Amino acid sequence: MSLQVTIYIVVGLTFLLYIGIAVWSRAKSTSDFYVAGATVNPVMNGMATAADWMSAASFISMAGMISIMGYGGSVFLMGWTGGYVLLAMLLAPYLRKFGKFTVPQFIRDRFYSKAASAVAVICLLFASLTYIIGQMTGVGVAFSRFLGVSNNVGIYIGMAVVFAYAVFGGMKGITYTQIAQYCVLIFAYTIPAIFISLQLTGNPIPQIGLGSSMAGTDVALLTNLDKVVTELGFNQYTTNVAGSKLNMSLFTLSLMIGTAGLPHVIMRFFTVPSVKAARRSAGWTLIFIAILYTTAPAVGAMAKYNLHATVTPGITRNMDVFAEGSSLKASERPDWMKRWENTGLLKWEDKNSDGRIQYYNDQTKDQNVIAKAQEAGWKGNELDVNADIIVLANPEIAMLPNWVIALVAAGGLAAALSTAAGLLMAISAAISHDLVKGIFAPKMTEKTELWVGKLAMAFSIVVAGWLGLNPPGFAAGTVALAFGIAASTLFPALMMGIFSIRMNKEGAIAGMLSGLFVTLFYVFAHKGIFFIQGTQFVDLIGGPNSFFGITPEAFGAVGAVCNFIVAIIVSRFTKSPPLEVQQLVKAVRIPRGSKNIKGAH
Q: Cα–Cα distances in Å, from 145 out to 161, 179, 397, 467?
């Protein structure tokens, strides 16, 4: 059976599974639509939360970024995983005990203000819509490569599939679909890793294989990889850090607190029946996430080695061979390269017209590398590989069986669609439950609210699809912006809402708005959005990364600090929250049964 037919069968079967689950689990009430009736088993919710949280960025991009960045790519591992720990320990149990459907609803009741809820909805929409662009892009990439359709057609198909199980099933349909999607994506991620680890090191456990010696040698895989990349003029894989240590630390912190503030993940903890179940669910989620996240460094390193083994076979096999043996004849490039060239994510240009693809670092200052490369007729790097293809192309590079390649295609789509559905659910709930019913039509019946929720979901899918087809310049290529927005707006408000009795509505509103403003201002200035008399605004404020060398992707942490400071100052100069709100905060924080609190509920 051909590779293309195998892919069609595997992907088609997974889509039928998702749609079948949606038909079986149709939402019949607002409780079903928003929180799956709050009856989901903690283990099952752990799987669904893991699928919701591990997006296309985790499945498709993270190992690719680690592969390109080396040690510096660990910011994504530390930031996203550490953020989930923060969420599980500091937010999820307390929010579940509060017993509301959504993050804006918690903020409205905790800060006794519809205005605060409206600001939270705005922040949620900024973060969620920015984040969903990456998911739709991932859907387009996977479809265009594996199903042989254009990127646009791929996004349309993805919209249709999500519509089928999200609009009709709501959170109930999304939950059980995400359980199936977790199973698909985790098998799709780990099975190729096991195969490749066996090929390169003889060890079937990728996490151990990463630190093992190459098969048949006494040279460690990472030691060999370091030699390969340095011979090509790149920094050592195991020590490379892009930017300053301050920026790396703030980038990690921004991803951590941004993850903890993502509303679509927080909503998952409202689907379990109790606070105890929420805690257990958080523990199971961390276990399910760890399976993929501990595998990612091995996937990144092994994919990079396999890529070099294809493009620079002489260097990979023998460090003394540098000229012809270190580059690939264009006429002999493997089929996987030709297939990925069609997507535009892998490109090569024969700059010196020698019929070979030479892959050296254009920016190197190593005179030995430059001399050897020039001796081989080098006129600049001739290969461009997008980081997003590393995981998806890895099984093809390693020449694994067709069914494994097809499974990876299904896994990439499962990761993108599961998170897209979760984000759409958060957007829908914010519009229908928090904005329409919470502010404009509080007397709306449950039946009407359910229909408004479904219409909001359908509208959100259309908007998400449009953003995927026409991604705005400020968000293209990064989901870190979504984490920065969540970090600088929602996370501080949630933390102070739970742990600060003195925090009032004025402080919360001022904090969220200030965090949102400084973060978007810094990001937009760097993305060329602002101009004054034809001059880019970033040049007027001192140039790129002018604030202590901090990149826009890491600036969410600075926005969060601004949020905390402004909120605390404003709250100190304005009226304290009502007594019943202070008692409510105490009741949420203190375990049930420890002592009686007047006004607790």
A: 18, 25, 14, 20
Given the DSSP bridges, would you call strands 356-357 and 531-532 parallel, antiparallel or unpaired?
A: unpaired
Amino acid 190: pLDDT: 95
Angle of CA points 142, 146, 150, to nearest 5°:
70
Q: Is the pLDDT of residue 477 over 80?
A: no
CA distances from 180 to 20, 172, 184, 326, 377 (A): 11, 13, 6, 44, 52
Q: Evaluate whether 330 touches 348 at the Cβ level (below 8 Å).
A: yes
Q: Going by C-beta distance under 8 Å and a sequence separation of 6 or more, which residues neighbour residue 218?
A: none
3-class DSSP state of 248: helix
- d(CA 163, CA 462) in angstroms, rounded, equals 9
Residues 6+ apart with CB under 8 A from 245: none
**Confidence at residue 593, expressed as pLDDT on a 0 to 100 scale:** 43
Angle, nearest 10°, between helix axes 3-24 and 151-166? Answer: 30
For 297-364, strand residue ranges (E) read 328-329, 346-348, 356-357
361 phi, psi to nearest 5 deg: -75, 115
Contact 376, 341 (CB under 8 A): no
Give the residue from 368, 415, 362, 435 showing the smallest Cα distance to 123.
435
The residues that bridge with 356 in the sheet, in sequence order, are: 329
pLDDT at residue 472, rounded to an integer: 63
Q: Which helix (H) or strand (E) segment is 383 a member of?
A: strand 383-385
Q: Is residue 204 within a helix (H) or strand (E), and if so which, with residue range?
A: none
Give the confidence band of 27 by pLDDT, cuts at 50, 70, 90: confident
The pLDDT of 555-573, averaged and rounded, is 96
pLDDT at 601: 37
Please state, as a whole number, how many other Cβ atoms lie within 10 Å of the Cβ of residue 288.
21
Distance CA 310, CA 268 (A): 43
Pairwise pLDDT comparison (68 vs 515), residue with the higher score: 515
For residue 536, name the pLDDT band (cuts at 50, 70, 90). Answer: low
- The predicted-structure confidence for 291-326, as pLDDT tens digits, reads as follows 999 999 999 999 999 888 877 765 554 444 444 446
**From residue 301, how far is each of 11, 223, 322, 326 by CA, in Å?**
27, 11, 22, 20
- Structural domains of the chain, ranges and CATH numbers in brackets: 3-302+399-477 (1.10.4160.10)
Query: Do residues 139 and 56 touch, judged by C-beta distance below 8 A?
Result: yes
pLDDT at position 539, please?
62
d(C-alpha 347, C-alpha 357), whole Å? 10
Q: Which residue, chain included where needed, has tokens 């007594």? A: 579
Write down the residue that tokens 């924080």 correspond to: 589
The H or E element containing residue 362 is: none
Helix (H) / strand (E) element for 535: namely: strand 535-536
Tell me how far CA of residue 76 lies from CA of 255, 361, 386, 478, 577, in angstroms: 7, 24, 17, 12, 38
Residue 412: pLDDT band with limits 50, 70, 90: confident
pLDDT at 189 over 90: yes
| Helix pair angle (556-572, 505-526), 10° resolution | 150
Residue with the two structure tokens 């880019």:
536
pLDDT (mean) for 379-390: 83
